[in-house]
Design goal:
With 90 residues, the chain is of the alpha+beta class. The strands form two sheets. A two-stranded antiparallel ribbon has the order 1-4. A two-stranded antiparallel ribbon has the order 2-3. The longest helix is centred in the first third of the chain and has 24 residues. It is rod-shaped, with a radius of gyration of 23 Å.
Amino acid sequence: MTREILERLLLFFVPFVLYGSYLLLLRLQPPEGGRRHPWTALVIAGLVLYAGSFVVWGIEDGEPVGTGAYVAPHMENGRIVPAHFDTKKK
């Protein structure tokens, strides 16, 4: 779980790293007075990557189609039976 959180945080910071690399490669000086960094655009781009990672994660991970019917947790003989997929039911 920690790895997934760190991966998503790294995705958020990708636009900032790319912008910093752009400034270093062109040897640009930090903006003075009238010019400002594009913080809003960088944050929005980071949030789009962050949200997009959840979409990809939802598509890539998950139960394969056709594995059976979902059986919700229930009580049997006084014991709780955890949720599972029943491959006999479809």
